[in-house]
Amino acid sequence: MSSPIGKSRSLVAFLQQLRHLGQPPRPVTSAACAPPGPREVPLCPLMEPGEAQDAAALPGPTNWPLLGSLPEILWKGGLKKQHDTLAEYHRKYGKIFRMKLGSFDSVHLGSPCLLEALYRTESAYPQRLEIKPWKAYRDYRKEGYGLLILEGEDWQRVRSAFQKKLMKPVEIMKLDNKINEVLADFMGRIDELCDERGHIEDLYSYLNKWSFESICLVLYEKRFGLLQKDAGDEALNFIIAIKTMMSTFGRMMVTPVELHKSLNTKVWQAHTLAWDTIFKSVKSCVDNRLDKHSEQPSADFLCDIYHHNQLSKKELYAAVTELQLAAVETTANSLMWVLYNLSRNPHVQQKLLKEIWSVLPGNQMPRAEDLRNMPYLKACLKESMRLTPSVPFTTRTLDKATVLGEYTLPKGTVLMLNTQVLGSNEENFKDSSQFRPERWLQEKKKIHPFAHLPFGVGKRMCIGRRLAELQLHLALCWIVRKYDIVATDNEPVQMLHLGILVPSRELPIAFRQR
């Protein structure tokens, strides 16, 4: 896969001209940051602030004037392959290193020990990386902030309002009827979409439609008809807008969003138009629910959250918007990857099928309570999220000076928690390139608890985690019981970073009815 710039002569000449100006790669300076060796002890030894080195001593790649390490990132495959480059940097510079991309300065963590140390020093209101393009749009249109942007007490207040519904297992289990309703329609749609070989062209788009229908039924008690042959424009435009927003905001994280906004660049225009479409759709759906259940708000998912908590309407709009867009992309992508992994490992799929049959004889509909008896199913999803995660990293911004490893990091330091690196590291997972769900059942006690964090960690863990897992577990029950998921070729499929990690080509899988 070629980079946006490509390995052109002009880039080579450009690098040669700048090489004498750039700060050379900073070397590994301590044993704590050495490349992976033997398995780490469960608890990281902590250093006192006076014993730790200054952050300026952190190792890392060459820092070019104005550009930071961006030329090298582009040379190695571009932003689409940055997750692979980060893994390479961790092998070269160790478990903690510093890197600049244009104006974006960050410290990267690639060790479960360091993540655990960070977690144990977490404050009451952990801060995430400031998503400046999102904030710029909200301020521009005078919209509210959601959970991915809010900080401090406002973040805690809004999260608490949603947490009561989304993080309690007993509340999530009540949603299985809605999820199953959409899955039943999706099964019928698969039959219609398969060609004579069982292949579905543009499978990812249909998984997005399934995910969209599911989250909308949960949030709004509304079906958009995306799984019908003639889908409405509103939902299709929403999905397109999400993809546009995701592809444009990344560019404005590297180059200042203020510059894009002041010059009214095409990237800024596309980003703004995409958010306009997203907010318009969400506001309409939320307002309909609030109007319909104004007299009995407890009877509705959203109305209950709004009327029994101190939320403004703008906060409700923003929080629901961010929840919906996260659910559509990441849930669909996670299902696509687990189907791919099952197709490449038929012995795993057969073992999973036997477990499903043992719990759900005949055509019995899977329920949330049935999943308690399906440990192998849960292990399959977990292993897929380790091997082919949708999200390669999460972020934190330090709200106080903190010692991590052998370095003192100042307040305001942006941390990149490279969770994809953790999952692919042989130090954390033996035979890490193999899809082996058994590791989560037979070797679980040997796995560091901070080596696998697909939904983040700590108080800012993904609030939609339990809902996403329920959707995915039930989907696997339906699909694997009805279809043999077959690999149509054995050529490798790479991961590309496009906001989330997506396949580099159409996945070579087919659905063959059992």
UniProtKB/TrEMBL annotation:
Coiled coil: none annotated. GO terms for molecular function: heme binding; iron ion binding; monooxygenase activity; oxidoreductase activity, acting on paired donors, with incorporation or reduction of molecular oxygen. Its cofactor is heme. It is found in: Mitochondrion inner membrane. It is a peripheral membrane protein. GO terms for cellular component: mitochondrial inner membrane. CDD domains: CYP24A1. The lineage of its organism: Eukaryota, Metazoa, Chordata, Craniata, Vertebrata. This is 1,25-dihydroxyvitamin D(3) 24-hydroxylase, mitochondrial isoform X1. Belongs to the cytochrome P450 family. The keyword Metal-binding applies. Keywords: Heme, Iron, Membrane, Metal-binding, Monooxygenase, Oxidoreductase, Transit peptide. One of its GO terms (biological process) is cholesterol metabolic process.
